[in-house]
Amino acid sequence: MGLPGIARVIIVGLDGLDPTILDEQLAAGALPHFAALREQGGYGRVATTLPAQTPVAWSSFATGTNPGGHGIFDFVNRDPKTYRLELALNRYERPGVFQLPRVVNLRRGVPFWSALSERGIPSSVIRCPCTYPPDEIEGRMLSGMGVPDLRGGFGTGTYYTSAGGVVAGEAERVVPLPGTGPGPIETVILGPIHPRTRGETRVPIVLEDAAEEGRMILRSPGDPESLVLERGRWSDWLRVTFRMGLLQSVRGLVRFLLVERGPDRVALYCSPIQFDPEAPPFPISHPDSFAGDLSRAIGPFHTTGLPEDHAALSNGRISESAFLHQCEDLWREREAMFEHELGRFESGMLYCLFGIPDRIQHLFWRYRDAGHAANRGRPMVAEHRQAIAEAYRRSDAQVGRALEAADDRTLVIALSDHGFGSFRRGVDLNKWLYENGLLAVHDGEEAGDPEGPPLGRIDWSRTKAYSIGLGGIFLNLRGREGEGVVDPEEAEALKGAIADALGGLEDPVTEAVAVRSVVARERVYSGPFVEEAPDLLVRFGSGYRSSWGSAMGHVGDSVFEDNVRIWAGDHIIDPVLVPGILLMNRPFRSDDASLLDLAPTVLDAFAMARTSEMEGRSLLR
After folding, report:
1. Which fold has domain 8-67+109-147+305-419+578-605?
2. Which end of the chain has the smaller Cβ count within 10 Å, N or C?
């Protein structure tokens, strides 16, 4: 039986909240609503997935299965026949020459909201990862992580500058500005690729100085035609239309940050182009009209799956203050969505994800770790020392809003998908494979070009194993990979040899254990999609993670490297080191809770048995 009289379930998803920090804040009395929720029901840690990665973990939350049951193992995958890297969350297919492309969600399995729909129980799902395209459910859904920008990436911004010699960084385009005199500056917004010409579509814009110092006016054929830019502040949204053909066009939303306007220098940052929620090129909500209705109710909003402009901060294009100001806007955006749905929530299940804590911890962890290499040459800004603590207090406010909306027939759940820690040193798995004779590069090349194509310098005829993603190793298996050399009958012995040699790997500089263990996929995954997983999974020790280059299939200069990037915190380590948090306003079994238990728990609250695919069990009994 379910909980007596339960008619509603509210789930507050808080990406990346760490139990150690939560405990610190609870002890300090800074989180009154978390404390109230703990007193009403209980509080515990929740086991995350391997890897402890946002799309993997929330997919297991939704389906109640391990990754082998839903098919999401990382942000990236590869085409084994061509070794081309691919996004692992969704793909685009064109059924026929004269048919429009469609999006396919690569998260399989049956999410619990679909099971609820079969019983006529409505759900409202706001921004859950791996819901693009959205599931057709009884109720409403707004897609989350997986929605690209209009150019097709996770978030490609544009940096305009009058300075010469500026090289594009991660996930960005650089557009040189023609001049810095008193007259207008003409340039363009770079849009999606034209399907026929394969060139970038463009929208013209003109930058003019305003009467006030530190301001400019951006004029365009968009809406509004004139947009005020103020140095150091994000602009309002600009709605622009890109012409894709004689009768085709696509609309997008952008914001700008005027970085600098001096007598001899102009620098301007343009956000990734968001789908216009009132006219998206592909569905981002169910029903289709929901995104537009929401936009008209609360105003335009970010639609990309990773809306925080973390690459712009990492590339030094925007300041930490500008990033936090954007996060403040995103808090208000998501709170408005949550409030909108709570206002008409009468029965069923409501889930809303707040992803901002995860990104703030990634980029402000250096303030918790004074000895981090990311602090070299970077000032410690006093007002940013509390950025992470403030994200927890803001999360507490969302829990408070859920409790305020709850009655005695409402189950309230606050949940994070994983915890957090410092990312001090990178481990180049491909370099380790290279040094151990398992990976080869073409003759005359010491290591792969970090600016070259992923996996582009590897000599497959002499390579037995390679790594992509945040801790996965693939065998170059004959019959599976396009140029495979490892006989299938040798695979198990090779996997065992790699696991034995790499497991327990120590960092010679710190003498710490960088790799706690390496496990074969069959030991941790089960289900219909296991064959899509990496052959081996690496469990990193505290402070370590797959290096930046190795994650994209490159071969670096050394196995170990300091992580000097501002992305100083992470969670892709041994999952036992980074559990999430779980609180409910009803007593529950908290001693061995897992993300796999949440789907059966929600079904049990509505007196429904778990589906045959679900592996977890209800925490209510």
Report:
1. Alkaline Phosphatase, subunit A (3.40.720)
2. N
Rounded distance, CA 282 to CA 473, Å? 33
CATH fold of 424-573 reads Gyrase A; domain 2 (3.30.1360)
pLDDT in tens, 158-170: 999 999 999 999 9
User: If we measure between CA atoms, which residue out of 562, 319, 233 comes closest to residue 423?
Assistant: 562
Q: Outline where DSSP puts E strands in 274-325.
A: 274-275, 285-286
Rounded distance, CA 302 to CA 234, Å? 13
Q: What is the torsional sign of CA 140, 142, 144, 146?
A: positive
CATH 3.40.720.10 in the chain, residue ranges: 8-67+109-147+305-419+578-605
φ, ψ for residue 336, nearest 5 deg: -65, -40
Tens digit of pLDDT for each residue in 220-267? Answer: 999 999 999 999 999 999 999 999 877 789 999 999 999 999 888 999
Q: Strand 200-209 relative to strand 185-193: parallel, antiparallel, unpaired?
A: antiparallel
pLDDT of residue 1: 44
For residue 235, the 8-state DSSP code is P
Give the 3-state secondary structure of residue 383.
Answer: helix
From CA 540, how far away is CA 156, in angstroms rounded?
29
**Residue 439 contacts residue 585 (beta carbons within 8 Å):** no
Of 592, 591, 609, nearest to 600 by C-alpha is 609
- pTM value? 0.96
CB 62, CB 417: distance < 8 Å: no
Mean pLDDT (the chain, rounded): 95
Coil, helix or strand for 404? helix
CATH 3.30.1360 residue spans of the chain: 424-573
For residue range 170-196, what is the model confidence (pLDDT) as tens digits?
Answer: 999 999 998 667 789 999 999 998 888
Closest CA to 59 of 116, 135, 136, 156: 135
Contact 392, 31 (CB under 8 A): yes
